[in-house]
Amino acid sequence: MGNEIKQQEQIKLPQDFQALIAGFFPNTKYFDSRFDLFQVQIDESRRN
After folding, report:
1. pLDDT tier at 39 (50, 70, 90 boundaries)?
2. Where are the alpha helices (DSSP H) in 1-48?
3. pLDDT score at 35
4. How high is the pLDDT of residue 12?
């Protein structure tokens, strides 16, 4: 019985990890776009 609980925890852990990763991806895309915009602004200010 204890072995079944360990197997269920091992199965559940990757699902939780995937949910955690999926929660971060939209945020990283947002920050990537903001940093890209910031870089463009820096490049433009250097040209002027």
Report:
1. very high
2. 2-47
3. 92
4. 60
